Each structure stands twice: as C-alpha cells, then as structure tokens.
C-alpha cells in the first residue's frame, strides 16, 4: 500500500450524473430518460421502486476508495436532494460526513448546473487549501475535462470515478488515474447480475395486468331473510358501506320487528340501523363480508383499535461490519499496488480508520489489531516475522 500519510484529499460527487449513469448501466441505455416522468411523479410505484432498488449506488464504496489516497479533507455531493431518487441517499451520505449541496433545476427536465457549481468550488478550494494533494471527481461528463486539466496544472493528483460505458474517454484521459465504479471493491458482482436480470424482466411486468380476484376472494352477497313471506333487502353499514344482514328480533314466537315501522318511515341506512338499535336494545352484530377478511378489517368491524405495528430495524452486528471493513481495506491495498503481496498491518489499520473513524479493535473485544486479524483467518492471513506484521487477503 503506498505511503499516503501526508496526502490530503478532496472529493466532489456529481450525484445526479452517477445515479443516472448507473441506472442506465443496470437497466439499459436511456432507461432513466424513459422512466424519468414515472420516477418524479410515482416513485412509490412497485415497478419503479424495484428498478430504483436494483440500481442503488454504494456510496460507501466510493468514499472508501477515495480514502485510500489519503486523509479526506472535504467531501461534497451536488444534486437536487428534494428529488425522490436522490433523497433516499441523504441519510447514508450524512452518516459518511458528506456535505450535501442543494441544486434546483431552472426548469422541468433542465440541468441543475452541478458541473459549473462543482468546478467553481473545486478551483476555490485549491487556492484556499494549498496543502490539498488529491482531487477525486466522481462523474462521467466531458464537461469536467477543463476542471481536471486545471487541477493537474495546479499540481494536484486528479482521480476520476465513473460508470463504465457512460464516461467520456476525454475525461478519463484528462485524469492522472481513472477507476470504473463497477470495479470498486465493495460493489458486489452478484448484485449487479441480479440487477440486470430484474431490469430485463421489468418491461414484461409493466405490460401485464393483474388478474381478477378469484370468486372465493370476492365479497359474499349478504343472505336475504324472510319475514312473513317477504324478502327484506340487506341494510348498508354506515361505517364501511358493506352489506350486513338484516336484524330481526323475535318478540314472540313467529313475530318480528319490522324495520320500517321501527324507524318511523326513515329510508337512510344509517337511520334504519340507529333506530333498530334503539328498538331492540342491542347493537347490530357484525357481518363478515369476505371469507379471507384481514385482521385489521375484523378489528375495525368489532370496534377494537388495532395497535400500530412497530417497525424496528435490527442493528447490524459490529463484528460483521468490521469484517467487511477489513476485507475492503485489503482489496483496495492490493489493487493499488499489484506487486505487494503482503501489506503492513499498521497501514491496513490506518486505512480502515480512514474509511471508518469509529473502528476500534479494543471496542470489539481484541487486545490488539493482530488478534483482530487472526480472528478472521477465513478472509485474511497474518505473517509475523521479527518486528514486522504483514497481512494479505486470503483468496
């Protein structure tokens, strides 16, 4: 792993650019343009929600890759954060201490001017922070070529990150180093393949219609009752609008209370029901209108308030989080120096602390970082020779 103790890194993300490019990469060229209207108007649509989930960006993979070059001095993401497609990332970005720069489009479907704002801020930061050594530009637009060239002329090492197939070759050529988002450690290949499968099935799902419910799932007609040879129509329930069974109370054998007489000629279903309750002295029993009535329907019919389901996210195991952090740090170390089979454990730990400053092997119950690595022998191999402690990823 190269020595980056004194390197200071600034990261600039054109977030709209990377999200749209990855969406097109997963679902096919110009897919975002075709789905844009539906994403804006109905992001909760099941099909759109599934397609957005399949094309989710792993922000952590980008930030961790940038941290491999040195200490992150500043990290900014430019986008319209009121847009639903971007808003879902706000919590994740804030958790990684990313400054969110709000950009509103001038008109519908117009560019939000992220490239101009990002370039102005980057040039200002280079003069305001003379000790800045690296500039990471996360985008694929050729509009950033002048910015990359200017950063290099001012003595900064420029790193570009973009989606393969959606990045201008001129931008890659203007950078000192360019990495495709697809190849970053932490972006699982299986997830990408699954996302492509989901994208290929989406058009078919959009063209299908939901089948009509089976006959047994439909509401049963309320049974008709007889009183003196006459059929009485079922009354409508005032609260739910569902047909309920006509109530008859036998005052004497063979004698029933006539609803019309009890209500004084009232024709409103609600008035009929209220008058019947007064006449009979008992509430109308609930009538099931669906053989597969849900628990919430039953509770509402019975007059019992159903408790709201408390949705609690199960906290992730800190040991699993630390294991993935170690694996990502080792992969980044090997990728940056192909000749280095073994990495110094101190450098690996430093890199892990850059990616996640809260990491502490002692908080996880280990006396030293070496003990932490030894406990993960399935992914890492530790070699102790003299005073050196070397680590490598176990393949």
Give the key terms:
alpha/beta, 15 strands, globular, 41% helix, 16% strand, six-stranded parallel β-sheet, single chain, three-stranded antiparallel β-sheet, 395 residues
Number of strands: 15
| Helicity, as a percent range | 40-55%
Per DSSP, what share of the residues sits in E-state strands of 2 or more residues? 15-25%
What number is the mean pLDDT?
Answer: 74
Q: Gap between N and C termini, in Å?
A: 18 Å
- Number of DSSP helical runs: 16
Shape: globular
Structural class: alpha/beta
| Major β-sheet strand ordering | 3-2-1-4-5-6
State Rg: 32 Å
Task: Describe the largest sheet.
Answer: 6 strands, parallel
- Uncertain runs are 190-267, 282-312
How are the SSEs ordered, and which strands pair?
Blueprint: E1 8-14, H1 15-27, H2 31-41, H3 46-54, H4 59-67, E2 71-79, H5 84-87, H6 90-95, E3 99-102, H7 114-128, E4 134-138, H8 145-153, E5 157-162, H9 169-174, E6 177-180, H10 189-207, E7 225-227, E8 230-232, E9 235-236, E10 243-244, E11 250-252, E12 255-256, H11 259-263, H12 269-280, H13 295-301, H14 318-336, E13 343-344, H15 345-355, H16 369-374, E14 380-385, E15 388-393
Parallel strand pairs: 1-2, 1-4, 2-3, 4-5, 5-6
Antiparallel strand pairs: 7-8, 9-10, 11-12, 13-15, 14-15
Helix pairs in contact: 3-10, 14-15
């Amino acid at each position: 792993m190269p020595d980056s103790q004194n390197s200071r890194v600034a990261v600039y993300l054109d977030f709209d650019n990377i999200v749209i490019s990855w969406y097109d990469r997963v679902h096919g060229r110009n897919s975002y343009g075709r789905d844009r209207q539906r994403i804006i108007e109905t992001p909760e649509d099941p099909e759109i929600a599934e397609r957005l989930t399949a094309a989710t960006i792993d922000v952590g993979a980008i930030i961790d890759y940038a941290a491999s070059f040195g200490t992150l001095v500043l990290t900014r993401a430019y986008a319209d954060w009121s847009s639903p497609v971007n808003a879902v990332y706000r919590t994740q970005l804030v958790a990684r201490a990313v400054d969110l720069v709000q950009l509103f489009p001038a008109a519908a479907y117009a560019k939000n001017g992220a490239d101009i704002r990002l370039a102005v801020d980057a040039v200002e930061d280079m003069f305001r922070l003379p000790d800045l050594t690296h500039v990471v530009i996360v985008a694929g637009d050729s509009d950033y070529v002048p910015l990359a060239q200017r950063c290099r002329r001012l003595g900064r090492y420029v790193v570009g990150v973009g989606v393969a197939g959606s990045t201008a070759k001129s931008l890659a050529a203007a950078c000192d180093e360019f990495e495709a988002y697809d190849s970053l450690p932490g972006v699982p290949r299986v997830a990408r393949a699954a996302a492509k499968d989901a994208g290929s099935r989406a058009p078919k799902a959009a063209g299908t219609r939901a089948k009509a419910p089976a006959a047994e799932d439909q509401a049963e007609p309320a049974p008709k009752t007889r009183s003196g040879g006459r059929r009485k129509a079922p009354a409508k329930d005032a609260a739910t609008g569902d047909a309920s069974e006509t109530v008859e109370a036998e005052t004497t054998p063979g004698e029933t209370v006539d609803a019309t007489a009890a209500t004084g000629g009232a024709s409103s279903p609600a008035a009929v029901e209220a008058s019947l309750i007064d006449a009979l002295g008992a509430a109308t029993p609930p009538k099931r209108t669906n053989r597969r009535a849900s628990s919430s329907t039953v509770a509402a019919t019975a007059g019992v308030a159903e408790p709201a389901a408390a949705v609690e996210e199960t906290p992730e195991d800190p040991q699993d989080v630390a294991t993935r952090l170690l694996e990502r740090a080792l992969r980044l170390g090997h990728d940056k120096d192909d000749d280095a089979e073994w990495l110094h454990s101190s450098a690996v730990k430093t890199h892990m602390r850059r990616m996640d400053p809260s990491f502490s092997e002692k908080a996880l119950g280990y006396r030293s970082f070496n003990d932490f690595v030894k406990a993960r022998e399935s992914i890492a191999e530790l070699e102790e020779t003299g005073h050196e402690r070397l680590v490598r990823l176990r393949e």
